[in-house]
Amino acid sequence: MTFTAKDKASILVEALPYIQEFYGKTIVIKYGGNAMINDELKEKVMQDVALMKYVGIRPVIVHGGGPEITGFLKKVGKQSSFVAGLRVTDAETVEIAEMVLDGKVNSEIVNLLNHRGVRAVGLSGKDAGLIQARKKLATVYEGDTSRKVDIGYVGEVEQVNTSILEDLLDQDYVPVIAPIGVGQDGESYNINADYVAAEIAGALQAEKLLLLTDIEGIYRDFHDKDTFISTLHLPEARAYIRDGVIAGGMIPKVEACLTALDKGAGKTHIIDGRLDHSIILEIFTSKGIGTQVVR
Amino acid sequence: MTFTAKDKASILVEALPYIQEFYGKTIVIKYGGNAMINDELKEKVMQDVALMKYVGIRPVIVHGGGPEITGFLKKVGKQSSFVAGLRVTDAETVEIAEMVLDGKVNSEIVNLLNHRGVRAVGLSGKDAGLIQARKKLATVYEGDTSRKVDIGYVGEVEQVNTSILEDLLDQDYVPVIAPIGVGQDGESYNINADYVAAEIAGALQAEKLLLLTDIEGIYRDFHDKDTFISTLHLPEARAYIRDGVIAGGMIPKVEACLTALDKGAGKTHIIDGRLDHSIILEIFTSKGIGTQVVR
Amino acid sequence: MTFTAKDKASILVEALPYIQEFYGKTIVIKYGGNAMINDELKEKVMQDVALMKYVGIRPVIVHGGGPEITGFLKKVGKQSSFVAGLRVTDAETVEIAEMVLDGKVNSEIVNLLNHRGVRAVGLSGKDAGLIQARKKLATVYEGDTSRKVDIGYVGEVEQVNTSILEDLLDQDYVPVIAPIGVGQDGESYNINADYVAAEIAGALQAEKLLLLTDIEGIYRDFHDKDTFISTLHLPEARAYIRDGVIAGGMIPKVEACLTALDKGAGKTHIIDGRLDHSIILEIFTSKGIGTQVVR
Amino acid sequence: MTFTAKDKASILVEALPYIQEFYGKTIVIKYGGNAMINDELKEKVMQDVALMKYVGIRPVIVHGGGPEITGFLKKVGKQSSFVAGLRVTDAETVEIAEMVLDGKVNSEIVNLLNHRGVRAVGLSGKDAGLIQARKKLATVYEGDTSRKVDIGYVGEVEQVNTSILEDLLDQDYVPVIAPIGVGQDGESYNINADYVAAEIAGALQAEKLLLLTDIEGIYRDFHDKDTFISTLHLPEARAYIRDGVIAGGMIPKVEACLTALDKGAGKTHIIDGRLDHSIILEIFTSKGIGTQVVR
Amino acid sequence: MTFTAKDKASILVEALPYIQEFYGKTIVIKYGGNAMINDELKEKVMQDVALMKYVGIRPVIVHGGGPEITGFLKKVGKQSSFVAGLRVTDAETVEIAEMVLDGKVNSEIVNLLNHRGVRAVGLSGKDAGLIQARKKLATVYEGDTSRKVDIGYVGEVEQVNTSILEDLLDQDYVPVIAPIGVGQDGESYNINADYVAAEIAGALQAEKLLLLTDIEGIYRDFHDKDTFISTLHLPEARAYIRDGVIAGGMIPKVEACLTALDKGAGKTHIIDGRLDHSIILEIFTSKGIGTQVVR
Amino acid sequence: MTFTAKDKASILVEALPYIQEFYGKTIVIKYGGNAMINDELKEKVMQDVALMKYVGIRPVIVHGGGPEITGFLKKVGKQSSFVAGLRVTDAETVEIAEMVLDGKVNSEIVNLLNHRGVRAVGLSGKDAGLIQARKKLATVYEGDTSRKVDIGYVGEVEQVNTSILEDLLDQDYVPVIAPIGVGQDGESYNINADYVAAEIAGALQAEKLLLLTDIEGIYRDFHDKDTFISTLHLPEARAYIRDGVIAGGMIPKVEACLTALDKGAGKTHIIDGRLDHSIILEIFTSKGIGTQVVR
């Protein structure tokens, strides 16, 4: 389909109220899934971030990188064992995870953004002490009981030190963050990127947190497309998790939304990163996409 | 025609290179003709200016108002005589012109912009001594000879004092300027708005001057649509005026472009203000519209 | 009478304590009456404002223009009807009022100040949304009952948005304000200039509000010069209005003072604009002039 | 003679052009002679400086203190010998001179200004290395020959380090400077205050240097009041010194003016400090007083 | 003893934690006693202050000068009488005290610091109204009763106006303060320098107050070296004064500490100025020296 | 050996002139060799950098990482071939090099500095486009002729874009830079860290470039300790390279020094990183260590 110049002009104008609304606001994007693997989608995410920057938004990117870590562990012939679905992460594993996340995935995103005229700066949780972390134990359920198991250098966020983010944002850089935290003794922790994005959105009092996922959003019944949920409020979301309506891979996404809202983010959105320009669709069009979790 | 969300997203992204190009740049718009009379077009110009502002451009508006002045003179029963096609402007006439331009046309534009969330401030050439003017004589041709005739308070720009414009632009206001200049003794002069826009574009070293007109642009032969000129260079433009290719109402437009370029503006554009969103079409799409006059 | 250089020096020095007292303070002047009609007085007011500016005061001018509006309405053959002494102001009338106030009276004051080396900028309530207004109904008394009558585009101040004033004052401009407000739908309202000045003095937390009038001040008994009141306190002023001691044209003046004080202005003064340099007399000499209304 | 309020107002207004002219300008005042001894005159100088400050001038005071030093040396029973009219200044003498100038005369001036609401700060040439000095030899003439004689800690200005002055002026303080310089090895030098004022006026590129003296100005013939010189140009001044028209105590005054002009001051004035408010008379009235030495 | 380069490096590194701790903090030093008389010690204090400045501390010096005043009074043959151990200070005495303190002692310290590359500025309590003072009466005990006696221009601090200190500190100057205060009528008061330092430390909310004394610190029993007190808390200190454990010359020192703590200083230290580099020892080494009085 | 507090104080004071000299200056450190492998030395380098930061120096770290890259390539079973002593660097190799340098070596240094209270931020040449690079061909000598050979993603610096460094330094961060450059098409290049440090020192107009090496400095004759060169001037250095006096591994070090000096660095130093606190020894002690290459 081709557009006339006139069509283009009206669409630009239609975006104006959204541009006004988010002018000067901070939006945190958890970047992961297909949008990070598929080259065409990747290209479109970069365009979206560049557009955000130019119309006055302050974007902050937090990325994952699970598949790339798995690929690299395989390459070095490192076997992984799993507990409760989580990879046991010994010292060598976390070192490789950090190398892959910070030295490969992060660098590539930074590079792509710089190529689009946006001044991006890559950070990990170590830079200027950005993410203070602590060990997170896995929970193993056995019948009616559960117990906590140490699975190594898997962490959770203890504190976000936003000063480096604010300094960079104020000078018009786009921070790109690898989800590595640093512990009391300087040890590295691999942290779920959804949670890192949530904590950063909270700590920055961001206007929005956008989680790019590989699903369309949340369904009341996963098998019935008619049960799609556009908006989910905090109490409802908590109830759905408790009652098992929200389950499996959706749990960390929704929990990340709850955390971000609890700590001060404005709104949170679980969107389908497999769509072209899903970020722009969410921010600049009247309908929005995916499921929003709000207060 | 309706657009899918996806269409909209791609069009926004297509605008990105133009947004980057003009980020932080000053663009002077001469606003006049049908775009100022037709309510729908007016609305669209306001949207265009708001969009420019929000994507980081610094717009400056200079407006005309001939028809409104004529209307008001009629209302007060004031007869006008003409010399060489120019209205003889006595003290009462210039007073009414100033009232209409500054107290009506200017206020209305300011008001419309404020309603779109843009902080506009109306100025005339008197505010903070913005436009120093002097009397402009009319040239009357009689056979092979010509003579200069005093037609009253019709002026030309002597000097632009940009400090108030820079102070307002730096604080994110949109200046809207009525084409009234002030003489040595404090007397008012009515000045052709095209020339005022040109002088201001030059004095501000603006990136672009856009003249909104009621024609599509310039033709080598007005009767032959195939002779449309997209780009005109300075020497060519001067030759065309000398040789009569450019004539009549086009002369002041092209002269304004030449003046702006001579005094430091980057590019100048004669565009068709009768088109919806002509400003956005010119700035944000690859083809541009109308005739550009460049160095 | 001629002064020796020595005389002049001592008088300058005598002004020192007043200069110190008002250094850096904002003073709002309601400019109107004879001081705006008589050319010699006008000249002196301009000198006074220039002096204020140069000794470190931040003056803000609000002007009226009733007689000029009346004159112009007559010129265009517009008949006015009156309700409760107020002009019924239809759309055409308010348009003319705005043209006269903003495009003629305001421009002229700005021009005169610029000629004295002061950088003045003319504003109406529309610029940057300075004065949000709403319709004001007239009160018609019939025997013991009263009813409200819609007399068109006569307004009252709903809110003052001081940002443009502060930005201009901080950059050493003198704002000159025409008493036109803007309603919810962008419609213009003509507002009594005394009230506009009062609201602006309050919103700016001004040190003083000076109302230039055509009387010497307030008398307890208008026929007995010995009953002149130098200082009036808030409760007293309210009582005098209630009891009819203050009546007629004095009511809006005193009400303006009360409003300014209620909203945060420091002191208010009703002074005789028919005196040469009445502003300087009030500010820089030990005795002050006119009637001050204070907390 | 008493003035009406009206008189006062016109005189204030008459000063306006002078206030405009010197707004934001630096004026260096050499304060000494009778104006520093007579309590009434002293009071008036302080008022003048306060007025200057409040109307936007940046005054800098350099003071002398010869008579006070002499008085104190007498008190401690210190005998002085003289060479070529200059006091031989041994280590004890310069120590006492510094104590008197910095610890007494300077403190008193600072104190008087602070009492008038001006924030004055006392400095000597030692503070932040303000005045780098070197020894100045006396010239003894014997018949047709002359020789240089070491008379101890009498100095001349080598370099003025204006940073502390600029920092204080920018923060609205009035610097008051005692004419003590500091040598390479940290030793103190007593320097002629006229020269110190001249060097500081030059280094600050001051608008004016005012030297308060005990004479009316310069006469071509000291005995003939009709030969008073209002304006003296550089070459003329040099010729008059060479030819002995300017002689005796006038030489250092005129030389100070020449130095200040050579180093970048705008104008210099030798004025009669015995007149009430001589500073104000010079700056704020049309006639000026005394003799000006200009380029 | 000689150090290898390696030794030096480790010692510099050992100081690092102390440098970090005091970076950007204000430390007030009461400079007096032997450290001000002995040339070698004096040199070392100056080095210490320079070092403080360069490692990011904001030092403020308050000096005494009793012995120098006494010496000078003797020189001018001025007899002093004493009441309750305090010198009766008539007008002539306070004038000499001010000259000595401000014009000699202060200037010399400023000069020594400037010679070490530190930009020092000398102040007395008169500069910019730094120290507002009032008369302090002496208390004479006669048997069980006491009475207050006027001993002239001996003062106590009424108020510290820190603006000049903050302006100078923010611009990287080191203020050096002579303990002269100024009364309501502009009269000078000689004030105990310990108290001045305490009030200034309080007013600046200084991190530390260091009092350089001629003793090692405080002993519970002056004759028994084993009773040395390293740390004294506020209530304890008050009890010791009440019970006479702290007596004689120690009282004003400890009272100064209490005043500083009460008004907002962080910690106070009574240290032995007779030790080489006592300031550095206190600040940059783990042990500290002398007695600290803390909350 | 133990030091008394007094010893410590004198050593701190001895460092004062060096602290003054480098206050506010930028010093670039190429960190590599043993100082990066040996844990104890590593710890000492971190202390040295922290000390530099706290005494007002602006340190910038550029690190190498050859041995770590080699180790990792071995781990993944990647075979390397060599041309002219340089590793042929295919796409997979440069990806691993980047991961190791940016995601492991860089992160670790950043982490160690943060643990010492210094706010360090890791960068690679990709961040904000810091290092623009281009392919560097290897030179293969065959008899008398030489030819250029493409060995893949080995690069040289084309341009340094210092804005991110200046923004971080101005906000008191310590930049730590991995020697990865980015080409026209976004491809990564591995660059010799000595050259990167040199280019950055030049681009920042750094006061000093310190190259930490595993030798004591430069000898005229490597076998004769008596031929040690303390200072080498530019022309001499060039001659020594040409004549083979400087050969082998010393060539890139000296070339780096020459490049830094050519591009604007003040001085350059080749120092022995195997010594404890070699950085502090070079900067803060009178003797300096190693070989300095100067203009």
Description:
- 6 copies of one chain form a homohexamer.
- Chain A is 41% helix and 26% strand.
- Chain A is built from 11 helices and 18 strands.
- An 8-stranded mixed beta sheet of chain A has the order 5-10-2-1-13-17-18-16, with helices on both faces. In chain A, strands 3-4 form a two-stranded antiparallel ribbon. A two-stranded antiparallel sheet of chain A has the order 6-9.
- The first copy, chain A, is an alpha/beta fold.
- In chain A, helix 5 packs across helix 6, helix 8 packs parallel to helix 10 and helix 9 packs antiparallel against helix 10.
- Chain A has one domain: 3-Layer(aba) Sandwich (Carbamate kinase), CATH 3.40.1160.
- The model of chain A has no long low-confidence stretch (mean pLDDT 92).
- In chain A, a hairpin with a 2-residue loop joins strand 7 and strand 8.
- The longest helix of chain A has 25 residues.
- Chains in contact: A-B, A-F, B-C, C-D, D-E, E-F.
- Chains B and C meet through helix 6, strand 5 and helix 7 of B and helix 6, strand 5 and helix 7 of C.
